[in-house]
Amino acid sequence: MAYASVCKHRNLGEGEMVPFTVEGQEIILVWPDGGELKAFTGVCPHDNGLLKFGGFNGRLLTCTLHNWVFDGRNGEGLSPTGCALEEYPLRIEEGWVQVDLPATVAE
Ligand code: FES
């Protein structure tokens, strides 16, 4: 695994969810109101819906395919429970948001 630069931190705002495709992988950066910037998979664990089409109200992230709801602070499933978004390590280096993505398996 290696950190990949995603975007400049100054381009993000608290209360926002921003999707990116990085090295062919769909991710979302989520900055909850009053919380810390997080990086999650951009693919819903239910049925692989793309979360970039979902909604974020500053705390709750909703997948529009079947309305599963996740906590933007930690990716935990709230409706239903017992699931979670995969979270990736995130760091800020010289103003860049960098995310440590899992290695992809060549097909
Ligand atoms: S794919 Fe996300 S709720 Fe079904």
UniProtKB/TrEMBL annotation:
Task: Enumerate the spans annotated as Rieske domain.
Answer: 4-99
InterPro entries linked to this entry: Rieske_2Fe-2S (IPR017941), Rieske_2Fe-2S_sf (IPR036922)
Key words of the record: 2Fe-2S, Iron, Iron-sulfur, Metal-binding, Monooxygenase, Oxidoreductase
Query: What Pfam families does this protein map onto?
Result: Rieske (PF00355)
Recorded GO MF terms: 2 iron, 2 sulfur cluster binding; metal ion binding; monooxygenase activity
This chain belongs to which protein, by name? Toluene monooxygenase system ferredoxin subunit
